UniProtKB/TrEMBL annotation:
It is found in: Cell membrane. This is Major facilitator superfamily protein. It holds the Pfam family MFS_1. It is a multi-pass membrane protein. The keyword tRNA-binding does not apply. Residues 17-394 form the Major facilitator superfamily (MFS) profile domain. InterPro entries: Bacilysin_exporter_BacE_put, MFS, MFS_dom, MFS_trans_sf, MFS_Transporters. Keywords: Cell membrane, Membrane, Transmembrane, Transmembrane helix, Transport. The chain crosses the membrane at residues 20-39, 51-70, 82-102, 108-132, 144-164, 170-190, 216-234, 254-270, 282-300, 369-390. One of its GO terms (molecular function) is transmembrane transporter activity. GO terms for cellular component: plasma membrane.
């Protein structure tokens, strides 16, 4: 007879080595970061499509990522994570090879949307693997994973700056190299015998206990949506806002270089104290800084002022962004890691999908100042909601 308690049948806990996780995140982030900075630029300047068309494509990419996040979380919990990871990476490598050869309109847009779906699956799988790690404090794991992601962003954008002038195909080949590197790393380091069986046993415990997520989880997902609903504006309309103020594209690009350097240094220091800071303190303080940055942006007119505003946002990002998925791990069922991380990535992608469209409507109707105040109020509203829910959850 089989034991009635699934825990009696469990062996040692199966989890990924942190070095493999961080290196995998760095490679995936580097490859993805070589694509998003040039998507609008390439479609508008070289494929001669309108900014409206480019905006629609970006929205479709974000929606595809959201769908991929759901698929990634579901498949991590219900299937062999290694097989899902290798299958998705194989698709991603094939798509990157395809876009390296065929990047005319509309093939480029179609391939970018499917690559967005694959990235959504991969981001969620990486976060789900991170959630399996128990020998290190969860806050430190996600903080270091976010640090690795930001190093990847810096590497990716630097490569774009060096190669784009030599032709967009060079950028695509470099991104392909990163995905091939991740495929090889996954093949040798992500094969974890027993992880599938561990997920099955843990999922059985979920059904037996009839666990239901609390209101705090949904509040955190709403806050995640609000933060990235605003954050995407720095990657889109703020560039136009700065040029309207008489600043250059080089000024705008330098913000992201400084952002990456500050994040790498700041998170390296913050990681030493991550396990001493409560989730509530870190996330809510970061969210307040996010809202404050948009209020400051309404008054910023010079490059130093905008840089100072962006540093407020960067500090908020350091405190909130890596700790939200870690907090979600602590308030959701520990035996449904993939589903929980998939929800976080879906909220992120949904915010990034709707943000530019909302911004365009508000700017046309009322201007940048009204837009920035509305974003600040939306983030502040969800921050207050989470603060109240966290107080009741204690």
């Amino acid at each position: 007879m089989e034991p009635t308690d699934p825990q009696l049948n469990q062996g040692p806990h199966v989890e990924l080595k942190t070095g493999a996780l961080y290196l995998g995140t760095l490679l995936q982030s580097s490859g993805a970061s070589m694509l998003w900075p040039i998507t609008t630029l390439y479609m508008h300047n070289q494929l001669h499509e309108s900014l409206s068309v480019a905006g629609v494509v970006l929205m479709l990419i974000s929606l595809a990522m959201m769908f991929g996040s759901y698929i990634g979380g579901y498949m991590f919990d219900h299937f062999n994570p290694f097989g899902v990871l290798m299958g998705t990476l194989t698709v991603a490598v094939g798509l990157m090879a395809g876009i390296s050869f065929w990047h005319t309109w509309p093939v480029f847009a179609l391939l970018m949307v499917v690559i967005g779906w694959a990235d959504g699956v991969l981001y969620t799988l990486m976060s789900s693997y991170a959630a399996t790690i128990t020998r290190i404090d969860t806050r430190k794991v996600f903080n270091m994973n976010y640090l690795a992601m930001n190093v990847g962003v810096v590497v990716g954008t630097l490569v774009v700056g060096a190669l784009f002038q030599h032709g967009v195909q060079m950028v695509f080949w470099a991104a392909l190299g990163m995905y091939v590197g991740l495929w090889l790393l996954a093949w040798y380091a992500f094969r974890l015998p027993g992880l599938k069986q561990q997920n099955v046993q843990e999922r059985t415990q979920v059904h037996q206990r009839s666990v239901h997520p609390g209101k705090l989880l949904y509040g955190l997902l709403g806050l995640t949506f609000a933060i990235y609903f605003g954050y995407i504006l720095w990657e889109s309309v703020v560039a136009t806002h700065m040029t309207d103020l008489g600043l250059s594209i080089r000024d705008y690009s330098s913000l992201w270089t400084i952002n990456g350097v500050v994040l790498i240094i700041g998170q390296s220091v913050l990681n030493r104290y991550a396990d001493r800071i409560k989730y509530r303190q870190s996330v809510l303080t970061g969210a307040v800084l996010f809202a404050l940055s948009f209020i400051c942006l309404t008054y910023a007119r010079t490059y130093p002022q905008i840089l100072g505003t962006f540093m407020i946002l960067t500090l908020g990002e350091m405190l909130a962004a890596p700790q939200i998925p870690a907090w979600v791990v602590s308030v959701s069922d520990p035996h449904a890691k993939g589903h929980a991380q998939g929800q976080v990535m879906m909220a992120t992608s949904f915010g990034r999908a709707l943000g530019p469209m909302f911004a365009g409507i508000v700017i046309d109707a009322a201007g940048y100042t009204v837009l920035f105040w509305l974003i600040a109020l939306i983030i502040a509203g969800f921050t207050l909601l989470v603060a109240g829910l966290a107080r009741h959850a204690r």
